[in-house]
Structures are given as C-alpha cells and as structure tokens.
Amino acid sequence: MGKRDNRVAYMNPIAMARSRGPVQSSGPTIQDYLNRPRPTWEEVKEQLEKKKKGSKALKELEKHREKLLSGSESSSKKRQRKKKEKKKSGRIRVY
C-alpha cells in the first residue's frame, strides 16, 4: 500500500479573480455621482431663503412664546431674586 498523493496545486487568488473578469458592483458608481444634476446658484439661494423664512406655524409659535415670556418676565425676576437671597442667607462663613 502506497501513500496517496494529496498535494494540491497552488492557485494564486489574485490571478483567479482577474481571470473571472471585472467585478459587477451594485449601486451607483463614482461617475454617476459626478454626473448627477446639480442645482444652479439661483436655485440654491431660493432654497436658503425659504429655510430662513420658515413656516407660518413656526412664526405663530414664536409670537406666542414672546407674549408668554414678556408677561412672565417680572415674576421670573422676582423668583430669581428670592433664590439669590436664600443662597446668601444660607451661607455659613468659617474663618
């Protein structure tokens, strides 16, 4: 009984990949990204202006917030003064 020859020929993985041909990638290529349509400078300016303006609902919310804040300023200032006075009186000085 002789030994079996279980040696395998070495296959270069890079050469094997090249022999299969170019890889078919899924999804957009770099050229697709470079050739995509882009907005003109005027269109970009219009979009920025729309973002700055905001929606009517946001404007109404801002107005409502301003009204609430202007009405509660005096009471909030009083609360802050009371808190400061309590902090000052609560301090213990150690010499």
UniProtKB/TrEMBL annotation:
Compositionally biased intervals (Basic and acidic residues): 57-68
Record protein name field: Family with sequence similarity 133 member B
Family the entry assigns: Belongs to the FAM133 family.
Biased composition (Basic residues): 77-95
InterPro entries per UniProt: Fam133 (IPR026766)
Domain of life: Eukaryota
Region (Disordered): 19-38, 44-95
Organism: Macaca nemestrina
Coiled-coil residues: none
